[in-house]
Design goal:
Layout (H helix, E strand, L loop, with lengths): L9 H27 L3 H4 L13 E5 L6 E4 L5 H5 L1 H7 L2 H68 L10 H4 L12 H24 L1 H20 L6 H31 L12 H4 L4 E3 L8 H4 L1 H35 L12 H12 L1 H27 L6 H35 L3 H13 L2 H34 L17 H39 L12 H19 L1
Antiparallel strand pairs: 1-2, 1-3
Helix pairs in contact: 1-12, 1-14, 5-7, 5-8, 5-17, 5-18, 8-17, 8-18, 8-19, 9-12, 12-13, 12-14, 12-15, 12-18, 14-15, 15-16, 17-18
Length: 571
């Protein structure tokens, strides 16, 4: 049985040291922003001296007049930037109505979210017994839907037979923006029918040759529900993740507000539009109305943009680290279930707490290093999106093509790194090795089981996505009928609302996020059990000296698959 190493390796120490050094640098930047910044200046306008505009003041620079303060002109550079905020303030009535709707319906919104938690819990527990039926129902539904598409294409193809103009080929017509023209051709429906037939044949062939893999996937889904039923505390971990993410977001917002006031005001340097309408030029010929820069030409003011970029990067790193910590903690808890020979007697006490403590104490550097790699790629994607936004009006086709290719490549790279990191964190939770070694072991272990990985990953993702839609959709439909007074039994309890979509959208979005949190725990459980399953197959042979740690049901399906493979080889 794999044992967790309770001594961090040398690489882990280096990763931890790099993380500490970067955090110290970030703390210095944040401390500088908090000293020099003032978040009130983002909301309230200021004059040239940096004082709040009560009353407004401008500075007049002239050849014959000294620099004087002139009171109360209608438009200020402060206000040129804050014009958008003023327009938002005009929507006060709408905001008050929305606030009133939340005040009247918050109890029912809370009831809807609690119902979502209960439904998510029941859904996960029922998957232990209905995963097989649900999965095969999805497969049969997909085959039936494609079969209906083939029949419909054949029906359209036959119905167009003999009609004038329907035998013209697509090449004869050429390109048209009106796609309905192509639907009047028999060749179009023939192409559709052939494509759907090929897709149907491919799916059927895959199901025939991968039926054993699908059965293993179903068994792992059932095993995941069984593991969660023994470690119910894992279902509460999304609450911890939510709280940590809320702290990260609050930290980022507060830090961004402090240096932002100088950045926005500097960007707002404009001439007064009302200066030419006054008689100041007659009183003082040659005078000009200019916005005097305030705040000083210090290193801090010259590098405000750099501080914002660093703050954004740190935010991405903190979010990815929070997600990595949750994945490692959950993986350690579920791995302790799998490697218990006699379940549930050999499962250690408080497995989630023990795994979380190990992750915090021994694996912080490895988790931070993996999060750093992912954050760098995400930051590059943000820069590419910014360049794409700036170059939208560019007529250079080559530049736009190269930028599009780079965006696509880094999108793929981000998803590959997410996949590698997720499995590396599982290996870290099991063996306690550093990130590089764990990612290498996890990658080659998955490559040796690439067919199982492809089948299980897609099947699990699709099944859990349908579960999220089912949970959030059912609660959303119930909320719609309730808030629109469509349920006669409790119609009198329905609160009076200005906008019924306010609590409705809140319930739907909250339900999806809750279902996403619960089912992500389930997905992490299945991924952990799958890696343990592959490791179990390579380390053990089922003998009395090296028994399998997998459950009897999973072992039974595996044995049948091996016997079927031997028969195929012998024949």
């Amino acid at each position: 049985m794999p044992r967790v190493q309770h001594n961090p390796s040398l690489t882990g120490k280096v990763e931890y040291l790099n993380t500490v050094l970067f955090r110290l640098g970030n703390c210095c930047a944040v401390f500088s922003a908090w000293i020099h910044g003032d978040p009130r200046k983002v909301i309230y306008p200021t004059d040239s001296h940096g004082q709040f505009c009560v009353p407004l003041r401008i500075l007049i620079k002239s050849f014959c007049c000294h620099l004087v303060s002139f009171p109360l002109l209608p438009l200020s550079p402060c206000y040129s930037h804050h014009r958008g905020i003023a327009s938002l303030l005009n929507a006060k009535e709408v905001g008050m109505k929305i606030f009133e709707d939340y005040a009247n319906s918050w109890k029912w919104i809370l009831i809807g979210l609690v119902m979502t938690m209960a439904v998510s819990l029941v859904f996960i527990l029922l998957l232990r017994y209905t995963a097989g039926v649900f999965l095969w129902l999805i497969v049969v539904s997909v085959i039936a839907a494609i079969g209906y598409g083939i029949w419909h294409c054949y029906w359209e193809y036959s119905s167009l037979s003999g009609k004038p103009g329907t035998n013209i080929t697509i090449s004869d017509i050429g390109f048209h923006t009106d796609l309905s023209i192509f639907l009047q051709l028999r060749q179009t429906w023939l192409i559709f029918m052939i494509c759907l037939s090929v897709i149907e044949a491919i799916i059927v062939v895959i199901l025939i040759f991968l039926r054993t893999r699908l059965r293993i996937a179903i068994a792992l889904l059932k095993e995941g529900s069984r593991a969660i039923s023994y470690i119910m505390s894992t279902l509460l971990y999304p609450i911890i993740t939510f709280l940590l993410l809320a702290i990260c977001i609050a930290y980022w917002v507060v830090t961004a507000l402090y240096p932002s006031n100088c950045w926005f005001i500097i960007k707002s340097v404009t001439f007064f539009q009302t200066f030419s309408q006054t008689n100041i030029t007659k009183v003082c010929p040659g005078s000009q109305c200019m916005f005097a820069f305030y705040g000083g030409e210090s290193v801090y003011h010259r590098n405000i943009l750099v501080l914002h970029v660093c703050n954004l990067f740190v935010f991405l790193w903190l979010v990815n680290f929070t997600m990595a910590l949750g994945q490692c903690a959950l993986a350690g808890a579920f791995a302790s279930y799998y490697w218990a020979l006699k379940k549930p007697n050999d499962i250690p006490a408080c497995p989630l707490y023990s795994s979380f403590s190990r992750a915090i104490r021994y694996h912080t550097g490895s988790l931070a290093f993996g999060s750093l790699i992912l954050s760098v790629v995400q930051m590059i994607r943000i820069v590419l999106e910014y360049l794409d936004h700036k170059l939208k009006g560019s007529q250079n086709a080559c530049t736009r093509f190269m930028l599009c290719c780079l965006k696509c490549c880094f999108w793929c790279l981000e998803h590959v790194i997410r996949f590698i990191n997720r499995n590396a964190y599982i290996m870290i939770a099991i063996y306690g090795k550093n990130f590089c070694t764990s990612s290498n072991d996890a990658f080659f272990l998955l490559m040796r089981n690439v067919i199982r990985v492809a089948v299980l990953d897609k099947v699990t993702d699709f099944l859990l996505f349908l579960g999220k839609l089912l949970i959030s959709g059912s609660v959303g439909v119930l909320a719609f009928f309730f808030f629109t007074h469509k349920i006669p039994v409790i119609q009198q309890e329905t609160p009076s609302l200005n906008y019924c979509w306010v609590p409705l959208l809140t319930v739907i979005f909250g339900s999806y996020m809750i279902a996403h949190g619960f089912l992500n725990v389930y997905a992490m459980c299945v991924d952990t059990l799958f890696l343990c399953f592959c490791e179990d197959l390579e380390r053990n042979d089922g003998s009395s000296s090296r028994p399998y740690y997998m459950s009897p049901g999973l072992h039974k399906i595996l044995r049948k698959g091996e016997e079927g493979a031997k028969l195929c080889t012998a024949s």
